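If you are new to this repository, start here. Below is one unmodified record pulled from the training split, so you can see the exact layout before writing a loader.
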Amino acid sequence: MKKFKIRYKETGLFVLTDKDLKERIEKELIFHYNLLENYIRRNPLFLASYEPLTIEKDAPLIVKLMADSAKRAGVGPMASVAGTFSELIGNFILKNSKDVIVENGGDIFLKVTKQRVVGIFSGTSQFSERIGFRINPEETPLGICTSSGSVGHSISLGESDSVTVISKSCSLADASATAIGNCVKGENGIEKGIEKAKSIEGIDGVLIIKGEKMGMYGRLPEVIRTF
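And here is the target side for that same chain:
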């Protein structure tokens, strides 16, 4: 498979495909990025809101996907931005490649023809990079998105080391990881996160790591040790 990185302004993608589609993917990324940027310029609340927003029927596709995912998860639309880019670019690549993996800041879209393992980074937790998911081809296309209250620059109101959500929609998985992560606070944080996960329609499952504790809910790919 071909491996390459693509960066445009605030978005950086790591891509694996059957063939070198870098230039075409870069154009597609710029197309959607500019649509989103122009929309935010006209509607700055879309960037700032921590709550779901109602948008116009003629809004760009990327805006519609983000707003819908945010509404279903109960967060602001920008909580789904990375996963939405992964999903849009992944589906674009699928027109020309049987195998696709798009990773955008820990938010992954994949459609594969052979088994793959996706590891989970959880900061200083003892589970960090020691567990992952074994993904079988028949389980894809799939979105695997991770949010953290202790790692990275993304905004999280919780205390998790990682919240990883599985969904057929990468956009929804990203928004949901943020929403669930926001609930992971205090001694019963993992339980609170799982209760939130149960309320979000459209996700398959979640794996939550907080310190030395781990919790799972729903239908997840096989969880394995990666060391």
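Two things worth knowing about this chain: The longest helix spans residues 22-42. The chain has a mean pLDDT of 93.
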